[in-house]
Amino acid sequence: MYVPLARKYRPKRFSEVVGQEVAVRVLRNAVKQHKLSNAYLFAGPRGTGKTTLARLLAKAVNCLRPQEGEPCGECENCLAVDRGSFPDLVEIDAASNRGIDDVRAIRDAVSYSPIKGKYKLYILDEAHMLTKEAFNALLKTLEEPPPRVLFVLCTTEYERIMPTILSRCQRLLFSKLKDSQIVQHLKNICQKEGIECEERALYLIARLSDGGMRDALSLLDQTSTYGEGRLNTDTVEEFLGILSQEKVRDFLKLLLNSQVDKAIAYLNEINQKGYNLSRFCELLEEEVMDLILYRSLQEPERVVRVEDFHRSMQSVPLSALLYLEKVLNAVRAEARSRDFLRAFELAVVKTQIIKDIVPIGELLKGLSPSPSAKEEAETTKKTDPIELLEGRLDTFTLEVLRRARHEKREDKFLFYIKEGELTQEEINRIKTLEPRIDFVVEAKAEQEGLPAFAEKLKDMFGAKVISHEQRGKGKGPPDKGS
Ligand SMILES: Nc1ncnc2c1ncn2[C@@H]1O[C@H](COP(=O)(O)OP(=O)(O)OP(=O)(O)O)[C@@H](O)[C@H]1O
Ligand SMILES: [Mg+2]
Ligand SMILES: [Zn+2]
Fold it and tell me: What pTM was computed for the model?
């Protein structure tokens, strides 16, 4: 008969428990130092080791040859607990025995001494399901417990346990397991089972299990069977109809870049292939939340597994991420009134405006030039006034200015030109174009100088110059068209 991995690999010793360091240490020391509490409350998420540790406690306190608080795993009591046939270990599902009569029955049974072991141990699973009356009846027992009786109350809903009960129990909080802890555990099991696995696939399983080892193991069970002993991301994705983190992140980038067409095409493609869009949307939202936390927290490492991906998204404005989160969050509500694909598509369309979301700082920068840009412009002005007029004057005039000697006087540029090199209109026009430019017109000693200069220009600019040459001789304003 096939034994599911979760059962086959249920830790048999404290040292085999993954995580839950505090609980393990408290229990092991209590056993070692004979300082057991009469009642414990194990609270924490599903499949994180509560029942496992309760059974380990039963084993450790009844083991015939315990070592440093660890059960030996070989004596008859240890073997009986492992087999589930130890008479002094009673597991009660509070969900189906939640009434006062059930608790009274426990209370009566409790008064008998242990049959085989030193301690009789009651595990009350789903303790939050007990009725109020049952809780009250239980209180009495917890208050004055018969000697050699231990209670372990397990719950996934700590808040629902009455304060009067809480105060009579030693409370141990169980936490979700980290992805890396789950992956390591799965890796060891794959090795023992001869399952060929890709680490990325294990991470995918871990992520989907949301910190629960039982879920992780049952996913490993199913996917490795599906993959016939081989496990890679494709097998996992295919089996579960979900997409890898990598693909989710690629899609996220499409949204942040407002690549709506591509994103919608991709959605339709995966929908057609039968992938679970709702799960995809959830994974996407998780990624966005991680990015938001990464961007907003001082020490994001405490809550987010920071990867290169997060660092590479450093420049995405926080406002864009918050907007995206809101849009994705609305998909589920939208999907109530329409088909999920349509709701998702609508969200994608809404991301179109993300490219317009510019952080306010950038916006201000756009309104007035940044100091450095201003400075830069300033220096150009200082060193090269002609640059300022480029494109605004005709080539001839510019060339005259280029050849003219100029100097800086306070914040003005003084150009020395020869009489007749530029007409008065031209001078005025330049001055209105660039008020910082002024002219000193030097009287011309040799009239012949000018034709020679004009000749040179004629060589340089060809026919165009002719009109300038004429103009140079005082024939009115330039005619732009010529
Ligand atoms: N911390 C852990 N270390 C190793 N394996 C674990 C751990 N937690 C859970 N498992 C695996 O998951 C299986 C189920 O765990 P367990 O029954 O202890 O969970 P639980 O916390 O009691 O969950 P629930 O709240 O659903 O009752 C175990 O058989 C074991 O294989
Ligand atoms: Mg349990
Ligand atoms: Zn033993």
Answer: 0.62
